[in-house]
Amino acid sequence: MKILISADMEGATGVTWPEDVVPGASQWERCRHMFTSDVNAAVLGFYDGGADQVLINEAHWTMRNLLLEKLDARAEMLTGRHKTLSMVEGVQHGDVDGIAFVGYHTGAGSEGVLAHTYLANSITGVWLNGIRASEGLLNAHVVAEYGVPVILVTGDDLTCVDAAGYAPDAVTVAVKDHVSRYAAVCRTPARTAADIRAAAKEATALAVRRDPVLGGPYTVELEFDAEHLALAATVVPGAERCGERRVAYSSETMYEGIRTFKAVTTVVSAAVEEQYG
């Protein structure tokens, strides 16, 4: 049994504001330890539950945040940027039985601690076939095409609510309770590690490959905080204006859909000006 962990940082224990998750910022080094603790707890729980192999895919920012030397020696970690499927890289090889979304968060335009979708502020909303989409929802549709179920989700309490919409069978763990975008009631790392380990052990029973879900076509719509970003996004083939600050594109598969999404966000991030967004 092989488990893939997609590890993001905004939903990690103790994280509540940008300085906690921006590489090199004042609190990032401290929060890396709590992020690693959450991920390692999931690793331990999956091995407790009978997993034979656990691969961790770093999914936050530079994708170089987790402390490899603090992880269980049985695990392996894929770290670094520029991967075919970005946050869920590794799911496409046909050997993964279940995936965990550890340290996830709610989407742009929604309530939640550090809520966003890919870009921190420039994207104000994402919709997949008319449904407001978090990174979790987008990635869940990608992994479904490979027959891999989402078995565990950790983050704030609203992330757990969000997960119920795209992975209703998954075990969830709230490591903190949302107060505002930059505030939360947080559990201690010792407590969250115990909770995540127990949940991962339970979730291992859900790691059973399924028939691939080919649910396309998909239409993805993105809303930005400035008109010029929508204009910039249209250089990506297939992305067309559908409003003053909106673009949309369609794809037959979520493999194509998530790759186009990454292209759009990469172009848009390069078009953000320091003072005027």
In short:
It contains 6 helices and 12 strands. Strand 1, helix 1 and strand 2 form a beta-alpha-beta unit. The radius of gyration is 18 Å and the shape is globular.
List its traits.
277 residues; alpha/beta; seven-stranded mixed beta sheet; five-stranded antiparallel beta sheet; 12 strands; 29% helix; 24% strand; globular
Folded structure, characterized:
This protein has 277 residues and is α/β, with parallel strands linked by helices. The protein has six helices and twelve strands. The strands form two sheets. A seven-stranded mixed beta sheet has the order 3-2-1-4-7-8-9, with helices on both faces. The N and C termini lie far apart (46 Å). The mean pLDDT is 98.
Q: Total number of β-strand segments? A: 12
The overall average pLDDT, rounded, is 98
**Helical coverage, percent range:** 25-40%
Global geometry? globular
Structural class assignment: alpha/beta
Low-pLDDT sequence parts: none
Largest sheet entry: 7 strands, mixed
Give the neighbour order of strands across the main sheet. 3-2-1-4-7-8-9
State the order of secondary-structure elements, H for helix, E for strand.
EHEEEEEHEHEEHEHEEH
Q: How many whole angstroms does the radius of gyration measure?
A: 18 Å
Instruction: Kindly report the oligomeric state of this protein.
Output: single chain
Strand content: 15-25%
Q: Report, as a whole number of angstroms, the end-to-end distance.
A: 46 Å
Query: Number of DSSP helices?
Result: 6
